[in-house]
Write a structure and sequence with these properties.
With about 250 residues, this protein is of the alpha/beta class. It is built from seven helices and 13 strands. Helix 1 packs across helix 7. The mean pLDDT is about 95.
């Protein structure tokens, strides 16, 4: 069987005097090496992406992290300048892709911005600048240039007993990295909380009643997929779900 294909929505970024549709290499590398799938980068277009045409051609969706935040209007909040930067092209691509993938039973792994998109797509809200809330740690990306330090593993999350992720990651404490200033505020009704931080921040969810693998994590398993066991296990589980879906698509 040819390698299954996974859609990864791009970010719309401006640098070097031009505008680009981009995905950070770590997600592409983890898709190839961790999940054993072929990445298919989807442009961050505000209009023009045919979501069903895309999903007709893929066997999974990987919603990656990004510096930009989901626009607050998408979860009924007032947009403040401080809530930026925004990426309307990413929002207009990733949220419909997540929604339709769930409807069609296409496997989904949502990371960082991706779990926030998943929550908003299913009707939840986001909390901003969570580090400013009493009792909440600073989950933000460390202000350093070295990526290995920025994505360094530095925080516990507790995977719930009996959760979907418990067989994948093991129930109880695992160590993860943390690079976010937003988090799930009100969890969407269809989301089951799978893991939390000691300060109560929701760190992983699954979709209740989903037709296939449908998981979101607030941390970044893609970065250490080569060396960190929980990271590797999560990407292997996603890849296995994608291969199962692909086999069914071929047989149809
Ligand atoms: N913008 C959101 C999501 C954070 C996220 O996806 N971080 C990964 C990228 C980190 C970076 O390159 O800055 C939030 O801040 O919560």
């Amino acid at each position: 069987m040819s390698k299954p294909v996974v859609a990864i929505p791009c970010d719309f970024r401006e640098f070097d005097g031009n505008v680009w549709h981009v995905v950070a290499h770590q997600y592409v590398r983890a898709a190839v090496e961790g999940a054993g799938v072929m990445p298919f980068l989807i442009p961050a277009l505000e209009t023009g992406n045919d979501i069903d045409e895309i999903l007709d051609r893929v066997d999974g969706v990987l919603a990656s992290g990004a510096r930009s935040n989901v626009h607050p209007s998408l979860y009924g909040a007032e947009a403040k300048e401080s809530d930026g930067p925004f990426d309307p092209g990413r929002d207009a691509t990733s949220l419909p892709l997540i929604t339709r993938a769930l409807e069609r039973g296409v496997p989904l792994l949502a990371i960082c911005r991706g779990i926030q998109e998943l929550n908003v797509a299913l009707g939840g809200t986001l909390a901003s600048e969570i580090q400013d809330q009493p009792g909440i740690w600073d989950h933000r990306k460390p202000d350093v240039k070295e990526l290995d330090v920025a994505y360094g593993i530095r925080q516990d999350v507790i995977v719930k007993e009996g959760s979907c992720l418990a067989p994948v990651l093991g129930a109880g404490r695992i160590r993860v990295n943390s690079l976010h200033r937003q988090a799930i505020g009100a969890a969407a009704p269809r989301l089951a909380v799978e893991a939390v931080a000691d300060d109560g921040t929701i760190e992983a969810v699954s979709v209740i009643g989903s037709k296939a693998f449908a998981v979101g994590v607030q941390w970044h398993p893609e970065y250490w997929v080569r060396t960190d066991t929980p990271s590797a296990s999560l990407f292997k589980a996603f890849g296995d779900a994608v291969r199962t879906y692909a086999a069914g698509r071929l047989a149809a």
